[in-house]
Automatic annotation (TrEMBL):
Protein's recorded name: Uncharacterized protein
Naturally occurring in which organism (per UniProt): Araneus ventricosus (Orbweaver spider)
Keyword field contains Transmembrane: yes
Keyword Transmembrane attributed: yes
Taxonomy, superkingdom: Eukaryota
Keyword terms of this UniProt record: Membrane, Transmembrane, Transmembrane helix
TM region positions: 20-39
């Protein structure tokens, strides 16, 4: 995860700014809006996995589920990843330096987007 993003998340969790789901949702919305502008396809998939891993570790399972729901509904990855590129990433997923959780998230997200494009 890029250092500035990790720092913002750590600051928010450490100093109690993300104590309520409302604050947490606003924080994630703000952070992902900025990232949506900056990062291309592959980076967005990896970033989403890192973000979920950090949130799960520091904020708990409810926050992780809320973030996953937001990522799915906001089309965070869909917006910049054409289907042909997403399909090409799946066979080579082992080439990336991913934790098991990141890899699982990336595969499930790529598969979910592939299915939604086919419908």
């Amino acid at each position: 995860m890029p250092l500035e993003i990790h720092s913002q998340l750590h600051f928010g969790v450490s100093y109690g700014y993300l104590t309520s789901l409302k604050h947490f949702t606003f924080f994630i919305f703000h952070l992902l809006t900025i990232l949506n502008i900056i990062y291309p396809c592959r980076s967005r998939i990896l970033l989403a996995g890192c973000l979920l891993e950090d949130i799960n570790r520091n904020c708990g399972i409810r926050a992780r589920h809320g973030t996953m729901e937001y990522l799915h509904r906001s089309n965070f990855v869909n917006g910049s990843c054409p289907l042909s590129y997403r399909i090409s990433l799946l066979p080579g997923i082992d080439k990336f330096n991913l934790t098991e959780e990141q890899k699982t998230f990336a595969i499930s997200e790529l598969e979910r987007m592939k299915i939604s494009d086919e419908v």
